[in-house]
Design brief:
Elements: E1 2-4, E2 19-22, E3 40-43, E4 54-57, E5 62-66, E6 77-85, E7 88-89, E8 95-101, E9 108-112, E10 115-123, E11 138-143, E12 146-153, E13 177-179, E14 182-186, E15 191-194, E16 205-207, E17 211-213, E18 217-218, E19 222-231, E20 237-245, E21 253-257, E22 262-263, E23 268-276, E24 282-291, E25 298-307
Parallel strand pairs: 17-25, 18-25
Antiparallel strand pairs: 1-2, 2-3, 4-5, 5-6, 6-7, 6-8, 9-10, 10-11, 11-12, 13-14, 14-15, 16-19, 19-23, 20-22, 20-24, 21-23, 24-25
Length: 308
């Protein structure tokens, strides 16, 4: 059994890094005042782990994958691969990503038995302490035997001028789920489903911000933010409706836009959203965009807070 926690700087007496502890699940070792009675301890992430590891048995070896956080907030840590030999982990990573994950990541593995292993991670591009966070979630896929370069990411431009597969507003601790040839990533404002697309000939919606958090504002004072909407597809985007929806606070949010009924491929328009707090509490709403692209209605998640 492998376990790691929020050790490392500044929470631990060891300023170098957190430890990953390998235990005998039938004999956990019990308490000892002078020494940890575990099977093995391996130096892990500098700032500890807010995530779990993944395991895969490949054709030529067994592997553990983990991604913690850096020693300072937002510093991040790489996705690291450790090999497992005769029941022990390699003392150092045998492969790691060049990308650093600011909030860590819990990887998932898909494979055809012991072959074609792929390690999937969902990145939150902001640090653990940033609340609520407005960056888009990024899905990465790595060769399970070599983490040096992703074989796919949702922020690749592919054949488009901007990323085609941009995700929703990133959550902390999101774990990619793989089933029936698709990868599912939960975000603050939507469930993103990734899969094989084949040839695409229709329109595609790309939002400059999948969500927006307004700075704290005095009650009755209006703050605003322009958010771009682009058609990154290959056919006209028909926009039939843009509206604010909210269970409780719809009247405190508003939008205006210059979006035409039909947006040409490669063209963009702007939705300007405003917030006027009426209470000294957090408030939230959605801009709902009804169109003819896959995934309609698309949404922008908004939140703000008023102060006295």
């Amino acid at each position: 059994m492998l376990i790691a926690g929020k050790g490392g700087a500044p929470c631990d007496t060891d300023p170098v890094a957190a430890r990953m502890y390998l235990l005998n699940q039938n004999d956990l070792g019990e308490y000892n005042a002078t020494v940890d009675q575990d099977v093995e301890e391996v130096v892990g992430a500098p700032g500890g782990y807010w995530s779990s590891s993944a395991y895969w048995q490949g054709a030529s070896g067994s592997y553990i994958y983990s991604a913690g956080v850096g020693a300072k907030p937002g510093q991040g840590d790489a996705l690291k691969m450790f090999t497992v030999t005769n029941g022990l982990l390699s003392t150092t990573p045998t492969s790691e990503s060049t990308l650093l994950y600011p909030a860590g990541a819990t990887p998932s593995v898909s494979a055809n038995g012991t072959s074609n292993g792929i390690v999937w991670t969902a990145e939150r591009p902001e640090a653990i302490g940033v609340q609520p966070g407005v960056g888009a979630a990024v899905l990465y896929a790595y060769d399970a035997t070599n983490l040096a370069t992703p074989i796919y990411s949702s922020i690749e431009a592919l054949s488009y001028t901007v990323p085609r597969d941009r995700g929703g507003c990133a959550n902390k601790f999101a774990v990619p789920t793989i089933a029936n040839g698709k990868v599912y990533v939960g975000t603050q404002n939507e469930l993103d489903v990734f899969g094989l697309l084949g040839t695409q000939s229709g329109p595609n919606v790309y939002l400059g911000n999948p969500c927006w958090a307004f700075p704290a504002s005095v009650i009755g004072t209006t703050v605003k933010e322009p958010i771009a909407l682009a058609n990154t597809g290959k056919a006209p985007l028909t926009i039939s409706n843009v509206a604010i929806t909210s269970t409780y606070y719809a009247s405190d949010f508003a939008q205006t836009n210059n979006c035409p009924a039909s947006l040409k491929p490669g063209a963009k328009c702007v939705i300007e959203v405003t917030f006027t707090a009426s209470v000294a509490l957090p408030e939230w709403a959605y801009v709902m965009i009804t169109d003819n692209a896959v995934g309609s209605p698309h949404n922008i998640y908004l939140n703000g807070v008023g102060t006295e």
